[in-house]
Write a structure and sequence with these properties.
Layout (H helix, E strand, L loop, with lengths): L22 H12 L1 H9 L10 E6 L2 E6 L2 E2 L1 H5 L12 E7 L4 E5 H17 L7 E5 L5 H12 L2 E4 L6 H11 L3 E5 L2 E3 L2 E3 L1 H9 L7 E5 L12 E3 H7 L9 E2 L5 E4 L9 E4 L2 H15 L6 E4 L6 H13 L3 E6 L9 H9 L3 E4 L1 H9 L3 H4 L8 E5 L5 H11 L6 E4 L35 E4 L12 E5 L9 E2 L3 H9 L10 E5 L5 E6 L4 E3 L2 E3 L1 H9 L4 E11 L3 E10 L7 H14 L8 E4 L13 H8 L13 H18 L1
Helix pairs in contact: 1-2, 4-5, 4-8, 6-7, 9-10, 12-14, 18-19
The structure holds adenosine-5'-triphosphate (ATP) and magnesium ion.
Length: 647
């Protein structure tokens, strides 16, 4: 393992791994890359089309049109398709609330709800190509609303229910939505989230909106204005069947704004046929769905993981899934484990940030649940620290479940890198996302776009179009070209650092814009943070650079300790020493702060640019996607206090 970036990864030697990639995977990937169009057209045949495509790919760089000429409908692929099979009466969604309430919907029931709601939208004048903003809590009616839009050819734009009015206004206006679908409220950590009030605050500033449909979730009192109507009343009057609108393969299925970790959120636009093909295949390869699987993806549907791997992929496959509406740690820090035990989840797909939170509370909590139903564990959203990987593997998977780290983005539509257990089991390496999906031509290049040698850090790129790729950014082709296609000629630039090791495994090393330059050395935030987290007292870490006249940049670290650890001067020294030893003296932080929490986006990612702004006294940019405003204050306060102490 000498080729991996630091001593940290020697940890991975603790796992008995052999280093030859699976033979079959190698073969499938090779064939796929030798003729990607042929390969993807075979995959597309897994979908239901009402008209076959004329051309597999029309590529006018950087715009790709997959399966042009083909006609299909996403809701038919998720629902109608199962109506003549044994899946019809199988559980589609098992919904669970934070208070432990459950509700189950079969495929037939979901089909009926979607048909009726599609008619509600049609009755409100929504037509093909219109946009509908969906601002709902994590209840089954959220996927119902999405699939109803898809059924009539409208483009949905789901806005995460944790956002407040300005973020909602910006997204409604950007999309020019005709209808908003919302609820009288949601529930988060025992408190009512008053969604309807936020919509009411927005409505004066969103001229395109003609109607607001309100789902009764909480039963609290809400003001019903002239544009408002109740979901249940409208549905009651709607006809039970809605003829699906067959749309072109390149028809925009949805717009989704990115999580805004690096700047202003971008309106990523996804098509239908290519996107669904990518999802169908990647879900089959990565999760290796079996008939009796109970798939538990903990994402919120407000983010792409929820769109792709709660709504579209599992339903196309006729899988039973758990949809959880609540925080991972409320009322107690045991909710995911309780849900796994209660519903017998076989696959868990979650985030490193949730795992770090659970790790902080120790092993006793997960050990008190029966997690034996689990057979596969996945992660997404951020690089997974090897330390956290090992914990997931041992404490949750009891060393019996593969851990699949999946790298992808809102823009890529579906998984791009990850182990394909459905094709062939490859040896695992803790912290590595392993290999590209078959048919995905990903690699790592240097500043000049040339492939780097094994073990050298570079930029991850995708060299050929893939079916799940975004159509463009909504209403902004220029920004689309500029953001993703201008750094390297004709190659997609995701903006993440990575390296390939001597066995061909890919390692993600954090965001390219998060890199620190200390005394001429380029240090990845991910590697540094993993080094902090590998200290037994530390639960979470975030590092940022601060301009320094001599070194260029110095490192400042913000650390969250595990439960019951006292934040002493001795600990501070010990941690600095730990970093010197594990990464090297160059990486020793100049400033180190203990904080109660880190500023994160609503999707759980650390907003490092904020830390950087605070440390260098700059203005803080767009923070509409920040999870908890209090976290910035806390970081700022810790910083100010230390400044005083240090003089
Ligand atoms: P914005 O683009 O607005 O800054 P964002 O990049 O956080 O927001 P997403 O599309 O939700 O929005 O996240 C994709 C990014 O998340 C990737 O580019 C990568 O930086 C990170 N990521 C996702 N999965 C992984 C993973 N398995 N390993 C490493 N990084 C990951
Ligand atoms: Mg991004």
């Amino acid at each position: 393992m000498s080729d991996v970036p630091s001593k940290l990864y020697e940890e991975s030697g603790k796992l008995k791994v052999t280093v030859k990639p699976g033979r079959l995977l190698e073969k499938v990937s090779k064939e796929a890359l030798s003729d990607p169009e042929k390969f993807w057209s075979e995959q597309a045949r897994n979908l239901v089309w009402s008209r076959q495509w004329d051309r597999v790919l029309e590529w006018n760089p950087p715009f790709a049109r997959w399966f042009a000429g083909g006609l299909l409908n996403a809701s038919v692929n998720c629902l109608d398709k199962h109506m003549n099979s044994e899946t019809k009466n199988k559980a589609a969604i098992i919904w669970e609330s934070e208070t432990g309430e459950s509700r189950t919907l079969t495929y037939f029931q979901l089909y009926r709800h979607v048909n009726k709601f599609a008619n509600v939208l049609r009755n409100l004048g929504v037509r093909k190509d219109d946009r509908v903003t969906i601002y709902m809590p994590m209840v089954p009616e959220l996927p119902v609303a999405m699939l109803a839009c898809a059924r009539i050819g409208a483009t949905h734009s789901v806005v995460f229910s944790g956002f407040s009015s300005q973020a909602l206004i910006d997204r409604i206006n950007d999309a020019g939505s005709k209808v908003i679908v919302t609820a009288d409220g949601g529930m988060r950590k025992g408190r009512l989230v008053d969604l309807k009030k936020v919509v009411d605050e927005s409505i004066g500033s969103t001229p395109s909106v003609e109607h607001v449909v309100v789902f009764k979730r909480m039963g609290n009192e809400v003001r019903m204005g002239p544009k408002d109507l109740w979901w249940h009343e409208a549905v009651e009057k709607a006809a039970p069947y809605c003829e699906p609108e067959m749309v072109e393969s390149t028809h925009p299925l949805y717009i989704l704004y990115t999580s805004g970790t690096t700047g202003k959120p971008k309106g990523v636009m996804h098509g239908t046929g290519g996107y669904l093909t990518h999802l169908y295949s990647t879900a089959k390869w990565v999760f290796d769905y079996k008939k009796d699987d109970v798939f538990f993806c903990t994402a919120d549907i407000g983010w792409v993981t929820g769109h792709s791997y709660i709504v579209y992929a599992p339903l196309m496959h006729g899988i039973t899934e758990v949809m959880y509406d609540g925080a991972p740690d409320y009322p107690k820090p045991d909710r995911y484990w309780a849900v796994v035990e209660k519903h017998g989840a076989t696959i868990l797909y979650t985030t490193p940030t949730a795992l770090r939170m659970y790790m902080k509370y120790g092993d006793a909590i997960p050990n008190s649940f029966d997690l034996s139903s689990l057979r596969l564990l996945g992660t997404v959203g951020e690089p997974i620290n090897p330390e956290v990987w090992m914990w997931y593997y041992k404490t949750i998977g009891k060393e019996g479940c593969p851990i699949i780290d999946t790298w992808w983005q809102t823009e890529t539509g579906g998984i791009m890198l990850g182990a394909c257990t459905g094709i062939d089991m490859v040896p695992m390496k803790p912290g590595s996302a392993t290999f590209p999906m078959p048919g995905v031509d990903a690699g790592v290049v240097d500043e000049n776009g040339r492939p780097v040698s094994p073990g050298t850090k570079g930029y991850i790129v995708v060299r050929k179009p893939w079916p799940g790729m975004l159509l463009s950014l909504w209403g902004d082709d220029e920004k689309y070209k500029d953001t993703y296609w201008s750094k390297f000629d004709g190659v997609y630039y995701p903006g993440d650092y990575a390296l390939v090791d001597h066995d061909g495994y890919l390692w993600l090393l954090g965001r390219a814009d998060d890199v620190l330059k200390v005394a001429g050395h380029r240090l990845g935030t991910m590697e540094l943070e993993s080094a902090f987290v590998s200290h037994p007292a530390i639960a979470e870490a975030a590092v940022a650079g601060k301009p320094d006249p001599t070194k260029g940049e110095v490192i400042i670290a913000f650390l969250v300790t595990k439960e019951g650890i006292s934040k002493s001067e001795a600990l501070r020294k010990e941690i600095v020493e730990h970093i010197r030893k594990t990464v090297g003296p160059i990486a020793a932080p100049d400033e180190l702060y203990f904080v109660g929490k880190l500023p994160k986006t609503r999707s759980g990612k650390i907003m490092r640019r904020l830390l950087k702004s605070i440390a260098s006294g700059e203005k803080i940019g767009d923070i509409t996607t920040l999870e908890d405003g209090a976290a910035i204050d806390e970081v700022r306060q810790a910083y100010e206090e230390l400044k005083k102490v240090l003089g």
